[in-house]
Amino acid sequence: MASSSRILIIGATGYIGRHMAKASLALGHPTFLLVRESAPANQEKAQLLESFKAAGANLVQGSVEDHASLVEAIKEVDVVISAVGFFQLMSQLNIIKAIKEVGTIKRFFPSEYGFDYDKVNAVEPAKIMYDNTVKIRRAVEAEGIPYTYVTSNCFAGYFLSSLGQLGLAAPPRDKIVIYGDGNVKVAFVKEEDVATFTIKAVDDPRTLNKSMYIMLPTNIYSVNELVSLWEKKIGKTLEKVYISEEGLLKKIAEAPFPDDVDKAICHSVFVKGHLTDFKIGPHGVEATHLYPDVKYTTVEEYLSQYV
After folding, report:
1. How many CA atoms lie within 13 A of 106 on its CB side?
2. Listed GO molecular functions (predicted)?
3. Sequence-ordered list of residues with C-beta below 8 angstroms from that of 44, at least 6 positions apart, any chain
4. C-alpha span between 288 and 254 (Å, rounded)
5. At the topology level of CATH, where does 2-152+191-215+279-291 sit?
């Protein structure tokens, strides 16, 4: 039975990993979560793990830095989903090594959930992070490990909730900064929906050794279109400040870390259009074509919560 695949999630208390754990449990998979031996100092994460345990998750002690514990955890499952953070991407080489040693994993989902990193020509300092993701892809392929790469585009919690003003907790109501001309199309998706589509793909032969793109047809907007939609919802016109590509590149060069990373990502998304400037080729599949039954949150629905 397809729903019986046992899933190990690495990074289950992280930003996207917690949604992966919830979706795996909700869709009926035996769910294993790799956790360090010591309880999380962060009380919110400790409570989250307790809630997963109460929902039926198996907490497996181990770490990506401890090869023996990683091997033992991977032996318990059929599928490994990595949700490590941007700055831990290269630690996935340890996961790849352990998967290869175990030899029975049916699918590995490396931590991506953003761009198709093989198609992006980013500026520094984002470039080095994107390059690391590509290195992980090549390592997976070199070892012959079955995989699915999930290209989910822009997380709503980062990009949509702020209308691209990274760092804001809610859409601006007075003034907005728009990079480039504001006409570049961007694809948005709620984090819970990323997780649902990912877990749906776990046992699907159509996603084996493919990139799965989450390009929700109702959720592709330019920033100008987003601002117009938001203005209608709040009944107010925002002051718009446009920053040219040259101006943004200058800001990237001058910004301290990690603001420079955020601005470099914005350059890829809002100026270069790296999320939508290509056609899905034979190596790719699109999530809503595969799973038309999944009810996802639209951009309009998402923004309504802030009105």
Report:
1. 16
2. oxidoreductase activity
3. none
4. 40
5. Rossmann fold (3.40.50)
pTM of the model: 0.96
Query: Strands 185-189, 220-222: parallel, antiparallel or unpaired by DSSP?
Result: antiparallel
Report domain extents, the chain: 2-152+191-215+279-291
Which residues contact residue 39 at a Cβ distance below 8 angstroms, ignoring those fewer than 6 apart?
46
Contact between 16 and 195 under an 8 Å Cβ cutoff? The reply is yes
Q: What angle (nearest 5°) sits at the alpha carbon of residue 303, between those of residues 298 and 249? A: 100
> How many whole angstroms separate alpha carbon 304 and alpha carbon 307?
5
What would the pLDDT profile of 21-64 be if each residue is shown by its tens digit? 999 999 999 999 999 876 677 899 999 999 999 999 999 999 99
Which candidate, 22, 126, 141, places its Cα nearest to that of 83?
A: 22
Which residue reads 């400790």 in tokens? Answer: 46
* CA separation for the pair 72, 58 (Å, rounded): 13
Beta bridge partners of 33: 9, 59
CB 211 within 8 A of CB 281: no
